[in-house]
């Protein structure tokens, strides 16, 4: 028996990385996935791949830093399926930099995407989930939300905030409305995330991390494990890291 089958799952950041891997893995197990990211072309290709393999996937180009677009994404999902069982807040940005170099614009991008994007998703799905009397919100965190490393400062701050948001959601929404709130925190994964880093002073940090990176499918499997539980079981916070990664 699987608790994934037939669930309607919204996945942000679905055009690549964790979001893409989760979409493929969950759809293979019977979930109806609604894919969201900025790149409509990438979403279209992924949706076609899923649908051609016998799954069910819809997509909607969405910038999660725009609350109106996030609300439209949720409205679209409800219009098509009449419910939202799970929201996976996977969209995120990891821009390591040293404090010496004060990359303020990059700090703002991470705050907008990693923090505001998560909040907008939560705000958009809560009314429907409360009406349903059930639902699940999975926030993709990071080991950087549990321990701070060199060059991680602002990125870690956003992930610590996501951890606080998730725990607060659990204490309020899970208890009152049967809306599960969970956090999945990956370690270093092989998604070429380092290509977006502009601060060359953290190159040595990136090299050490890349040596131990694991495939993103392991994170997708962990997300599936969190979803694949009976209604009365909540997986709170799961960390999935390379065996040899030093925090």
Brief description of this entry?
The protein is an alpha/beta fold and 247 residues long. Helix content is 46%, strand content 16%. α1 (17-28) links the parallel β1 (8-12) and β2 (32-37).
Structure description:
This protein is of the alpha/beta class and 247 residues long. The chain has one domain (8-240): Rossmann fold, CATH 3.40.50. It contains 7 helices and 7 strands, in the order E-H-E-H-E-H-E-H-E-H-E-H-H-E. It has helices spanning 17-28, 40-52, 67-81, 104-132, 153-177, 203-210, 217-227; strands spanning 8-12, 32-37, 56-61, 86-89, 135-140, 179-186, 237-240. The longest helix is centred in the middle third of the chain and has 29 residues, at 104-132. Belongs to the short-chain dehydrogenases/reductases (SDR) family.
CA-based gyration radius: 17 Å
CATH superfamily: NAD(P)-binding Rossmann-like Domain
Strand content: 15-25%
Main sheet, how many strands, which sense, barrel?
7 strands, parallel
CATH domain class = Alpha Beta
Which descriptor suits the 3D outline? globular
- The multimeric state of the shown protein is single chain
Q: What strand order characterises the main sheet? A: 3-2-1-4-5-6-7
- List unreliable stretches of 5+ residues: none
GO molecular function, one term: oxidoreductase activity
Protein name: SDR family oxidoreductase
Family: Belongs to the short-chain dehydrogenases/reductases (SDR) family.
Organism: Planococcus liqunii
């Amino acid at each position: 028996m699987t608790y994934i089958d037939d669930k309607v799952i919204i996945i942000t950041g679905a055009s690549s990385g964790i979001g893409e891997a989760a979409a493929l893995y969950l759809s293979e197990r019977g979930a109806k996935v609604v894919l969201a990211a900025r790149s409509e072309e990438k979403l279209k290709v992924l949706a076609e791949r899923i649908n051609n393999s016998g799954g069910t996937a819809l997509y909607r180009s969405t910038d999660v830093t725009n609350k109106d677009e996030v609300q439209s994404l949720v409205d679209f999902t409800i219009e098509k399926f009449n419910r939202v069982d799970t929201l996976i807040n996977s969209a995120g940005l990891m821009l390591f930099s040293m404090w010496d170099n004060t990359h303020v614009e990059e700090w703002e991008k991470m705050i907008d995407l990693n923090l505001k994007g998560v909040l907008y998703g939560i705000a958009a799905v809560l009314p429907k989930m409360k009406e349903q009397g059930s639902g699940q919100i999975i926030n993709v965190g990071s080991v950087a939300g549990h321990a701070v490393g060199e060059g991680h400062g602002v990125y870690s701050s956003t992930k610590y905030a996501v951890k606080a948001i998730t725990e607060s959601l659990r204490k309020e929404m899970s208890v009152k409305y049967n809306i599960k709130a969970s956090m999945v925190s990956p370690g270093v994964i092989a998604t070429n995330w380092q290509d977006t880093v502009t601060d060359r002073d953290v190159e040595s940090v990136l090299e050490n991390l890349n040596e131990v990176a694991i495939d993103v499918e392991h994170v997708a499997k962990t997300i599936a494990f969190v979803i694949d539980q009976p209604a009365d079981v909540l997986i709170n916070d799961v960390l999935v890291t390379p065996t040899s990664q030093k925090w």
